[in-house]
Amino acid sequence: MSALATGGVEVALRGIAKRFGAAEVLAGIELEIAAGELVVLLGRSGCGKSTLLRIVCGLEEPSAGEVWIGGREVTALEPRERNLAMVFQSYALYPHMTVRDNIAFPLRIRRVAKAERERRVREVAALLGLEQLLDRRPAQLSGGQRQRVAIARALVRQPPLYLFDEPLSNLDAALRTRMRAELRALHARLGATMLYVTHDQIEAMTLADRIVVLEAGRIQQVGRPEEIYRAPANRFVATFVGSPAMNLIPGEVQGGRFRAQGAPLELVAGSARSGPAELGIRPEHVLVALADAPQPAPPAAPAPAAPAWLTGEVELSEPVGDRGYLHLRAGELVLRASVPGPEAFRYREGARVRAAIDPAHTHLFDARTGERWERQEP
Amino acid sequence: MNALAAAALATVVLWHSYQGAERQALEQTAAAINAEFRAAGHPEAQLALLAVPFDALHRKLETTIPRGHGPALFIAAHDRLGDWVQRGLVAPLPAEAAAPEERWLPGLLAALSGPDGRLYGLPLTYKGLVLYTRRELLARPPEELEELRRLAPALRAQGAVPLAYDTGSFFFHAPLFLACGGELFDAQGRFAVFEEPGRRSFALAAELVREGTLIGEASSASVAQLFQNGRAAAVISGPWFAGELALAPRSWEVAPLPRLGGRALGSFITVEGVLLSAAAPDPPAAVRAARALALHWRLRAELGQQPPALAEAYREEAAALPPLVRAQAHALRHGRITPSRPEMALVWEPAGGLLRAVLHRGEPLAQALGRARQQLAVASRPPPPAADPQPYLVAAGALLLLAVAMLVRRARDARLGTALVRHRFAYAMVLPALLAVAILVALPLVAAGALALFAHTGGGQYRFVGLGNFAAILGARDYPPGDPLSLHFTLGVTVLWTVVNVTLHLLIGGALALLLARPLLALRPLYRVVLILPWAVPSYITALVWRGLFDTQLGAINALLTRLGLEPVSWWQSFATAFAANVVTNTWLGFPFMMVVALGALQSVPQELQEVARLEGAGPLLRLRHVLWPCVRPALLPAVLLGSVWTFNMFNVIYLVSGGEPAGATEILVSEAYKWAFERQYRYGYAAAYAVIIFVLLLAYGRLVLGRAARTGTPASGGAAGASMEVGS
Question: ipTM beyond 0.85?
Answer without folding.
Answer: no
